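[step 3/7] inverse_fold.run input=structure_tokens len=288
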């Protein structure tokens, strides 16, 4: 596995490989790798000649009171895991080089007024800035993103459409622990008792899906159901529980078509997110 930190050196390598007709799959991450990231890399491995993974804790996507400084990091372990997942090229850019210029600011105007976008001001502006730069540096054919961050997928699909990036965005389903908790680099910050409670987030989403399949079509009642479960069964503080069409992220008043139920819950040292995307076939919904 090759490792690059400088932009010009990775570009030089990848331009040569692409001239030889090699396809490139790209997995952007912030590191502290777990099975979620590795699943993205393994899928990229199966679908491309060359797999590039970036590890960059992007300062632009953290707010002033967020966990940029304390975000977990372990570059040696990450390199070992990336290699074992079949990554060919690890890109570890430096913030100073990534953000040496300041003549352009990107601002996302759709799909960000809700969910994490409304809670984390500037977060998705930082995400599209770094992703645009990484796409220009790597020039991937396919880029892999996890549906654990479903709003991020929706925003990046908007970015690629609007700015005509010649890259195919691949949505990868959320990878979970055996008890249903979505894998996340931030799970290490859960206390033992919070770790026991945390699977309730996924359980309540799955039970909500069951209620919908059984005929519940009212978003408000589904939200209340999840709210009650999480308040009763965890010590977390609910940041949001919301339902929108997916990927447009516009409000819906009936649970029809393709929609997302997404939530964020704050525990003592970790804010966890999870979601479920439901595609309701017309005949499956029995109106109450
Ligand atoms: P991050 O390092 O948190 O920025 O994540 C890098 C990529 O891995 C993003 O596309 C995430 O959506 C994806 N990812 C993180 N956790 C998971 C998971 N549990 N399942 C699937 N993808 C994930």
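[step 3/7] decode complete -> sequence:
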């Amino acid at each position: 596995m090759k490792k690059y930190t400088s932009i010009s050196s990775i570009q030089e390598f990848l331009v040569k490989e692409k001239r030889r007709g090699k396809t490139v799959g790209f997995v952007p991450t912030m590191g502290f790798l777990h099975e979620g990231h590795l699943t993205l890399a393994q899928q990229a491995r199966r679908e491309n000649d060359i797999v590039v993974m970036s590890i960059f804790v992007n300062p632009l996507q953290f707010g002033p009171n967020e966990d940029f400084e304390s975000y977990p990091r372990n570059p040696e372990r990450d390199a070992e895991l990336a290699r074992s997942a079949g990554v060919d090229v690890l890109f570890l850019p430096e913030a100073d080089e990534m953000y040496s210029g300041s003549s352009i600011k990107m601002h996302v105007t759709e799909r960000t007024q809700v969910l994490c976008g409304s809670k984390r001001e500037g977060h998705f502006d930082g995400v599209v800035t770094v992703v645009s730069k990484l796409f220009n540096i790597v020039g991937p054919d396919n880029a892999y993103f996890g549906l654990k961050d479903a709003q991020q997928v929706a925003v990046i699909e908007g970015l690629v459409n609007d700015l005509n990036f010649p890259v195919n965005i691949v949505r990868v389903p959320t990878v979970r622990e055996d008890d249903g908790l979505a894998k996340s680099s931030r799970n290490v910050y859960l206390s033992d008792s919070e770790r026991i409670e945390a699977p309730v987030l996924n359980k309540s989403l799955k039970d909500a899906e069951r209620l919908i399949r059984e005929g519940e079509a009212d978003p408000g009642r589904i939200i209340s159901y999840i709210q009650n479960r999480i308040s009763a069964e965890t010590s977390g503080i609910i940041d949001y529980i919301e339902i929108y069409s997916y990927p447009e992220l516009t409000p819906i008043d009936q649970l029809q078509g393709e929609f997302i139920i997404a939530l964020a819950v704050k525990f003592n040292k970790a804010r966890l997110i999870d979601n479920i995307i439901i595609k309701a076939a017309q005949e499956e919904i029995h109106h109450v």
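[step 4/7] annotate
The chain is about 40% helix and 20% strand.
The two ends are 57 Å apart (CA to CA).
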